Amino acid sequence: MIEITLHVNGVEKRLEVEPRRLLADVLRQDCGRTGVHIGCAHGGCGACTVQVEGVPRLSCLCFAVQCDGQKITTVEGLAQDGRLHPLQQAFIDAHGLQCGYCTPGQIMALLDFVATAEDPGDDEIRRAMSGNLCRCTGYQTIVDAVRLAIAARDATGTPRAGRAMAEAPDRARHVGARVTRREDPRMVTGRARYLDDFMPPGALHLQLVRAEIAHARLLGVEASALREAFPEALLFTGADIGDLAVRAAQDYPEF
User: Which residues of the chain have pLDDT under 70?
Assistant: First the structure.
């Protein structure tokens, strides 16, 4: 175990972590920042994007120990004094989200572009967001949201604060009118909950351990030492399963 210090959204967190643990997992499991989403787990979708020292980073490709002593910002740290960041507000106003799973990563990846771009064309905006995938919107409403956020900057280039965070009122249900969905404020601030975000105390976790030798033919697995070291764990090997075919499931979208 290695002792590290992370400064997450302005809060210092001192942790003991294994060197192999990814920043995404540490932020989610040890810091409670479940707005950091894991979509593909190999850097292809951008859902896990956070800012490390002001630079967008894919937290699923970064070890937590590499960020020791650094400032990390997740989507939960953008709203100030109960008011949304203008890019968060723009995603709501332009309806740049549907399921909301990719939204935190989209927002974190576009922060610098929104702060510095001057009247960009659609192609330039799409290049800026090209590292983030969305399966719902078709991207055009995200482009519209970026334009809104850029237009919200004042004459000095400072983003104007978004509106106070609030859920859509019941009276907002009008046929033919643009309506703020109840869930949108939760989605743009990382407060939306997905299946992988529910971690009840005492939950059992499944860990698949693979052989470290490529192309080897395994004749057997000696697991007695592991069973002695972790008596509370349920440990299964191929000998225990036999010819039973097992189909593994995942609890987040595959991009």
Answer: 154-174, 242-255
Q: Which pLDDT does position 250 carry in this prediction? A: 53
Q: What percent of the chain is helix, strand and coil (3-state, nearest 5)? A: 30, 15, 55
List, for residues 185-244, the tens digit of each pLDDT value. Answer: 999 999 999 988 887 777 777 777 777 888 888 787 888 888 888 888 888 887 777 666
**CA neighbours within 13 Å on the CB side: how many for 202?**
0
Query: What is the 3 state secondary structure string of 98-118?
Result: CCCCCHHHHHHHHHHHHHHCC
Helix extents (H) in the chain: 23-29, 86-93, 103-116, 122-128, 140-151, 184-188, 224-229, 238-241
Residue where the block lists tokens 């400072």: 158
Phi, psi of 99 (to 5 degrees): -75, -25
Rounded to an integer, what distance in angstroms lies between the CA atom of residue 29 and that of residue 23? 10
Q: Which residues pair with 3 in a beta bridge?
A: 16
> pTM of whole model > 0.85?
no
How many whole angstroms separate alpha carbon 101 and alpha carbon 87?
16
Q: How far is CA 246 from CA 27, 40, 234, in A?
A: 31, 22, 16
CA-based nearest residue to 73, from 102, 41, 111: 111
Q: Which tokens belong to 230?
A: 């972790």
Q: Compute the C-alpha angle 10/57/42, nearest 5°.
A: 130
What is the reported pLDDT for 172?
47
Tokens found for residue 132:
């983030």
DSSP letters of 159-177?
Answer: BPP-PBP-PPPGGG--TTS
